Amino acid sequence: MLTKSKASVSWFARKQTKELMFKLFAYIILLTGSCVFFLPFFWMISTSLKIDTQIFLFPPKWVPNPVKWQNYYEVLSNTPFLIWLRNTTYVTALNVLGVFLSCPLVAYSFARLEWRGRNVCFIILISTMMLPPQVTMVPVYLLFKMLGWVETFKPLYIRAFFGFPFYIFLLRQFFKTIPRELEEAAMIDGCTPYGIYWKIILPLVKPALATVIIFNFMASWNNFLGPLIYLHHPEMMTLALGLQYFEAAYEVDWSLLMGAAVMMTAPIIAVFFFFQKYFVRGIVLTGIKG
After folding, report:
1. Are 48 and 114 members of one domain?
2. Which of 1, 64, 152, 220 has the most Cβ atoms closer than 10 angstroms to its Cβ?
3. What digits encode the pLDDT tens for the residues 227-247?
């Protein structure tokens, strides 16, 4: 009995050692990957605070000395950066609002309501994801031109109010994981399908909705092609397009360019960390049930 007890203790100790070594190896890999992805961002911040003579030094100087905070002031004073920020915030907010109003409602219809032709319509919706945007770029531009919306912000956000197939697909997958007993109990209490959607279903899909909002926020905030096609006046530009204009105007002043890039990137990082908990949970759960 004593021999068996010692053997089990030895086996348990070896198992714990293996698990500890595996976790340590996994953390080392994750830490190494995090450093690799963080280095370009750190270099961008470092360059934005350097004087011109320190930017192209070899070996590179990671910590600027002296720190030149004036680069950020020059970005704000020499370019209409605040106007570009206002335009980007306006377009992004309307995009997020449009996605919030349209995509969950359409996904709820596909996932929970029974109506004739539902599966056919869903297949058609998914098939539109296979069309590259370059195929529809010219027809969509001609349509917006006929409507007189060129040189306005409408082409950049109006489509969000009609839903995006990818976001609808993600939300539909999440809706299908919610037990139907919740809806049946609400219907017994006299709640309508629309009331079930707003009062019961929508509060339960916060993780998936946060995932969709982050995706849409990043896509809208960093959108370059749309403003390039529909906006031409400097006062109408967004940050992504304005940054390209800034690079053309200050092609040799990398510190100012990096300063503008840091200020453009900061809101995206803030939004991601604010919704991080819901984002990770939404990514995990959206593909559980088909």
Report:
1. no
2. 220
3. 989 988 888 889 888 887 766
